[in-house]
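User: AB hydrolase-1 domain-containing protein, Paracoccus fistulariae:
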Amino acid sequence: MTDARENWTRRAERLLAKTAAGRIPVVIAAPSGAVSGTVLLVHGRNGAPAQPHIDEIAQVYLERGWRVVAPELPNSSALPESGPASELTFTRHTAAAGQVWDWVAQQWPDDRRGLAGHSIGGYAVAHLGARLQPDHLLAVSPPMSGMVLLSARRAMGPNAVAEVEREAPLYRAEMESADASGAIGRVTAPLAVVTGADDGLVPLKDARAYFAAAPNGRFFGSLPGQHHCPVGPACRTMLAAALEAMGA
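Assistant: Predicted structure for AB hydrolase-1 domain-containing protein:
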């Protein structure tokens, strides 16, 4: 059955968030009724707010009354104006997301504020969550470290490693040192993980390790037959259950 829903970004507002490091485009949508809070939704490597798996997360938040703020972070090949994808690093991705969080806090200082992230967006929000103590943290297909992603690529074969070395050499170099395990252990807010059971980039055991490292883990769900970017009705149901479990 075809899902005829309109992508959330088509009814969203696009602004430039003024941050300490410059202006970062953000896509913002509010629910039709009362606002429960504001969530910062962080895409992954070569991600964008309009991608189907990010749309899936945004729609569930909107249905539950949350305002969604999704930045177009630097160095994504899916965002031609964001700068060279070859210059992406874990550190820069996390820092840029943090700068948008600071902007969100200035815009809606009295809101409950949550964090959500996909892939290395999940890595980024772990670091932010340890520092900022949000209302809750949702991670979709999250790697706990760069080595999780590098090991998965090595298991795929030399071409998979060569691809990332060619496309994002700085990111590839940082894979061996990027680590969010300590940060996850300092996230006291309710945390949930949703992942594809057949994810080749963040294998199920590694998504479980991310969840197990959290002191306040509330929900872990894996979707059979889904890979790194889960979508579809079953995914929406699981995301909604994750938010319910966290009181979001």
